[in-house]
Amino acid sequence: MCQPAGARRRLKEAMISSEAMSEHAQKQAARYDLLLPEDPAGARRRLKEAMISSEAMSEHAQKQAARYDLLLPEDAGYTTIRSHSNLFSEHYVPGLHLSQFGPYRLDYSRTGRHLLVGGKKGHVACIDWQTKDLMCEMNVMETVNDVKWLHTEAMFAVAQKRWLYIYDSKGVELHCVKKFNDVLRMQFLPYHFLLATAVRQQVLLKKTLQRVNCPLAFLIGLTNGKKRIKRPRKAIGLDRKLKVYDIRAFKPLHSCFLPAGASCLSLSQRGLLSAATGDIVQVYQNILGSSPVSKPYMAHRLRGQIWGLAYCPFEDVLGIGHGEGFTSMIVPGAGEPNFDALDTNPYRSYEQRQEWEVKALLEKVQPELIGLHPEQLSKVDQASFEQRHKEQVEALGFDPLAKDKFKPKTKKKGRSSAGAIEKRKRKVAHEDQRDEIRQSVQERTEREKELKEKFNEKKLGNKSTLDRFRK
Q1: 227: exposed, middle or buried (Cβ count in 10 Å: 0-12, 13-18, 19+)
Q2: Three-state DSSP class for 160?
Q3: Residue 170 binned pLDDT confidence (cut-offs 50, 70, 90)
Q4: DSSP three-state, residue 196
Q5: Distance CA 235, CA 218 (A)
Q6: What residue spans define the domains of the chain?
Q7: What is the pLDDT of residues 74-98, one digit of tens each?
Q8: Mean pLDDT over residues 203-209, rounded?
Q9: pLDDT of residue 402
Q10: Rounded to 5 degrees, what are φ and ψ at 190?
Q11: What is the three-class DSSP state of 284?
Q12: Helix/strand/coil for 75
């Protein structure tokens, strides 16, 4: 279930080259439009050559894409488990019996290679999911509500009883975010480098005070490079209904009954939705399609209370955290069979991860683009620079654009005495004021000159040739 890395790389290079040639042709056309009145023949000839070259590159990119599709033979399918499971799948389905510190939350890294588990009683561990090597293991000695990998497998976040902590893959504490207290659930946005949290709150449901344990999290699926965002708005209703909403239209797509209120939800790369109700896991197929959902695709019962669900990327494996530890479940057709080696490569080296991290930071998406209304992207922010600068000063507590005070450098041979330093300070003490005075004097001189010219024009315009003979 892998893809030659060179195929995606060459395809992406061809598409980038085509887009660059198309953009170059548009710029050339805009430049040649200025030459049309003077040299129409030469401008049209060069413009035609640029358009022909752009069309040739686009056609070449389409042919290359069709050729490279032959190198991606893997496809997701649905089948029974035990009769068709191979040794490769069995290698990914071991369980962890950890009944002392459970129940457990879990999270897979974006590449699907690393697993992070966190027990409610403080146990936190990182595991290389392919080699089964233990990266780190520790006990934070307080309640752990949730764990989440960050942009790479080198750092992860732990929502502990009081505050939010950031650790590295060796278990060393990197940062403690005290502004985030009583965090229940977390979700990391990899393309924005943002960590979203759900804090402790009490919700009144039909005169019953209950705490929300299943956050209304965004479920993101990628299909052909297009992002679809779905959100279960009523995951734990008292009517035992699971509803999937399309937030673009704010209308429910599907609705189905559950045995009890869902405590955990997880969406796979191929659109399979898992819901945990008590000690039962139900998997629903085609949850994002147009056909109604009548019954679950799969169901599995465990021994303990389920506390966490997560699909392993690029694998047909569902990780389940419960009171007795951790269990893996084979779900055919859950994982994406072909991965993009330029984005998430499970087999990348340390140097490749560093290079990817630098590129990802340079291409980071601004958080202002997060919104439910896509038409807001076309609107212009009318806030003035002064208003934004004032808000920034109030938030930071200082003016980031203000010039630093002059600090004389230390000089040798006795030239850094107290008197010499004060003398140098006096020389530059009023430079800003001098610049303002020079600018105001220059503006006043120009204004007086303009007024004088207007007065002379008006004075000469009222006179006639016979005025010189008047007394």
Answers
A1: exposed
A2: strand
A3: very high
A4: strand
A5: 12
A6: 93-203+339-371
A7: 655 555 454 445 444 445 556 788 8
A8: 35
A9: 74
A10: -70, -35
A11: strand
A12: coil
Residues 6+ apart with CB under 8 A from 35: 42, 43
Residues 292 and 244: their CA atoms lie apart, in Å, by 11
| For range 377-398, the mean pLDDT | 74
Q: What is the pLDDT of residues 435-453, one digit of tens each?
A: 778 888 999 999 898 888 8
Tokens matching residue 81: 């488990």
pLDDT tens per residue across span 10-51 = 666 666 666 666 666 566 556 555 545 555 567 677 777 888
Q: Which amino acid, one-letter code, is at 452?
A: K
Taking alpha carbons only, the member of 165, 171, 170 closest to residue 186 is 165
Residue 55 has pLDDT above 80, yes or no: yes
Distance of CA 48 to the CA centre of its chain: 41
Six token digits for residue 127: 């595991």
Q: Which CATH number fits domain 93-203+339-371: 2.130.10.10, 3.90.70.10, 3.40.1440.60, 1.10.10.350?
A: 2.130.10.10
Handedness of CA 47, 53, 54, 55 (dihedral sign): positive
Spatial separation of the C-alpha atoms in residues 80 and 332, rounded to whole Å = 8
Which of 291, 294, 253, 297 lies closest to 275 in space, CA to CA? Answer: 297
Contact criterion met (CB below 8 Å) for 140 and 160: yes
Cβ neighbours, 10 Å, residue 90: 11
pLDDT at 33: 55
User: In Å, how far from its chain's centre is CA 289?
Assistant: 25
Strand partners, 167: 156, 173
Return d(Cα 128, Cα 34) in angstroms, integer. 61
The Cα 319–Cα 266 span in angstroms is 10
CB 124 within 8 A of CB 144: yes
Q: Is 72 exposed, middle or buried (0-12, 13-18, 19+ CB in 10 A)?
A: middle
Instruction: Read off the pLDDT of residues 139-165 as tens digits, 9 standing for 90 and up.
Output: 999 999 999 999 999 999 999 998 999
The tokens of 210 are what?
Answer: 């209950």
State the pLDDT confidence band at 469, using cuts at 50, 70 and 90: confident
Identify the three-state secondary structure at position 138.
strand
Q: Could you report the per-residue pLDDT of 271-319, keeping only the tens digit for each?
A: 888 999 888 999 988 877 777 777 888 888 888 889 999 999 988 899 9
DSSP classification of residue 235: T
User: What is the pLDDT at residue 345?
Assistant: 86
Residue 296 CA to residue 347 CA, distance in Å, equals 34
The full DSSP string for 76-130 is -----STTT--HHHHHT---EE--SS-SEEEEE-TTS-EEEEEETTSEEEEEETT
